[in-house]
Design brief:
The complex is a heterodimer of chains A (about 250) and B (about 260). By secondary structure, chain A is of the alpha/beta class. Chain A has eight helices and ten strands. Helices cover about 85% and strands about 0% of the residues of chain B. The chains are: A alpha/beta (about 250), B mainly alpha (about 260).
Chain lengths: ~250, ~260
């Protein structure tokens, strides 16, 4: 993909946030997490490591606590027990502003799509590049044009989310999550309401980094169609608050 | 008795907590300015220009109309009263002290609160309820930078500019009222200019800064404080607007104390 963002980090305040974590650490580690708001069984704790370059899905019912895993990874929510580490950094213990900057290393797709309703799909994709990176406007425009093309959004790029269909909104939201070419992407129910073919196409784009390598992807969902499931390296079922490995 | 004291203490503590929250909010907004990215500066500038368009340009007609009517009424009444005691020279004091120094800034701030303060509070509350603020934070974008900073700068510029417009229209309209009561233009101009001082310029600039900040900060704070859902949006708008009006009147009184000191 052209318009790849420069790896150079110019601003000192952004550099300070990159001091968190370790280069050799796994992208995402959940340790002894209590997912059920009922700390009645200490054996049923959630443990999971998402290794670099792998795609992992955690599947569970609505009340299984699986929908909280994305928020824990981003530090948007705090678990009542257990620890979450992203690139070796304890997200629950980071100061507010460091955590804000640290999140720029993680691509995130929240439940729904989290698109800003008063911006066009193109401006939504441009948002992290404009406000969470130190690129020049021309660099931002190049990158956004490349993402719009790659995610087949050209025809609807100027539409606001309310005027676009569900698949285009989802494409825009995922393009936005990948705008800074993050090392780790966390997707909450990203394929709900999409056809198997569209979901496969999106997952394929999510897995590929700009340099051709594979990025770490963590998906949470209530269910996954078999064709997408087969693309995952690991499938985890959340049962009674614990992680149970299943065949992809 | 204990219950009464406890209720007073509880209410006082709650208000202090809101004040503390507001102070943190204002500080966060000022600090955000130093964290703007290169591309973010341009986008913020675009949002700021839009904010000035909505807040100042679209309010020009209303401000002009109200300034003309208010000044005409006040000066007409004052001229008749002062003429009956042979003191029409004091019309300059009425124009400068009552209209330019006090009523102009107050009414301008109230007009902007009623038009833009409500819009800012409703927009922020909707952003919060729709999960857009969380989405910004998840992307590593400081909501202060994206949402609050351009609106605050836009409101400061707009309120300051509208105050100057209000004063200009009020002085012009005041002349027509004075002329209808037999005062010549050069006499009116001499009296007004003799009463105006550099202090009035500084006071107008100071009030533009303080009232403009209040018009954006209070509605933003109360809008972003929404937690429960859409039903809380009208309450947040009301809280934001009422708090801004109180803040504008209190700071206006503070300016009187400072100016007379």
């Amino acid at each position: 993909m052209s318009g790849r963002p420069s790896q150079e980090v110019r601003a000192s305040w952004l550099r300070s946030a990159l001091t968190w974590g370790r280069p050799d650490a796994a992208p995402l580690v959940y340790t002894a997490l209590d997912l059920r708001d009922r700390p009645d069984n200490p054996d049923h704790r959630f443990d999971l490591t998402v290794e670099a370059g792998t795609a992992v899905v955690a599947i569970g019912d609505e009340d299984s606590g699986v929908s909280d895993l994305g928020g824990y990874a981003l530090g948007l929510k705090r678990p009542i027990a257990g620890k979450v580490e992203v690139f070796g950094a304890p997200v629950g213990a980071m100061p507010h502003y460091d955590l804000l900057l640290f999140r720029r290393r993680i691509g995130y797709h929240p439940v729904g799509d989290g698109l800003l309703q008063n911006l066009s799909l193109r401006d939504n994709v441009a948002l992290p590049l404009r406000f969470a990176s130190d690129h020049r406007l021309a660099e931002v425009d190049d990158r956004v044009a490349a993402l719009v093309e790659d995610f087949r959004l050209r025809a609807v790029a100027t539409h606001r989310p309310a005027a676009a269909n569900e698949e285009d909104r989802r494409r825009a939201a995922i393009a936005r999550a990948l705008a800074l070419d993050p090392d780790l992407v966390v997707l909450e129910a990203p394929f709900d309401g999409l056809t198997g073919r569209a979901a496969q196409d999106l997952l394929d784009k999510v897995r590929r980094r700009d340099d051709g390598s594979r990025r770490a992807v963590f998906v949470t969902a209530q269910d996954l169609v078999p064709s997408v499931r087969r693309m995952m390296d690991r499938v985890i079922k959340v049962v009674d608050g614990a992680a149970v490995e299943e065949n992809p | 008795m204990t219950a009464v004291v406890a209720a007073i203490g509880h209410s006082g503590a709650r208000r202090l907590s809101v004040l503390g929250g507001l102070a943190r909010f204002a500080l966060g907004t000022f600090r955000a300015a130093s964290r703007l990215t290169r591309a973010g500066r341009w986008v913020t500038l675009r949002v700021l220009v839009n904010q000035v368009r909505f807040t100042a340009l679209q309010a020009i007609g209303l401000v002009t109309f109200l300034a003309a009517i208010l000044s005409f009424l006040v000066i007409s009444q004052a001229m008749r009263t002062l003429a009956s005691v042979g003191s029409t020279d004091y019309i300059g004091t009425v124009v400068v002290v009552a209209i330019v120094r006090e009523l102009g800034p107050l009414l301008t701030a109230l007009i902007v609160v009623s038009r833009s303060g409500t819009a800012i509070a409703a927009e922020m509350a909707t952003n919060r309820v729709m999960g857009e603020v969380t989405a910004l934070e998840a992307m590593g974008i400081d909501p202060y930078i994206y949402l609050v900073l351009p609106r605050m700068l836009g409101a400061i510029i707009s309120v300051g500019a509208l105050m100057i417009l209000f004063d200009g229209v009020a002085l012009t309209s005041g002349y027509f009222a004075a002329a209808l009561n037999g005062m010549h233009f050069s006499r009116y101009l001499d009296i007004v200019l003799a009463t105006l001082s550099a202090k009035d310029v500084w006071l107008t600039l100071g009030k533009g800064l303080v009232f403009g900040s209040a018009v954006a900060l209070f509605p933003s704070y109360h809008g972003l404080a929404v937690k429960a859902g859409p039903t809380e949006i009208p309450q947040a708008v009301t809280r934001g607007v009422v708090a801004t009006i109180v803040a504008v009147f209190v700071s206006s009184a503070f300016f009187v104390v400072v100016a007379s000191g």
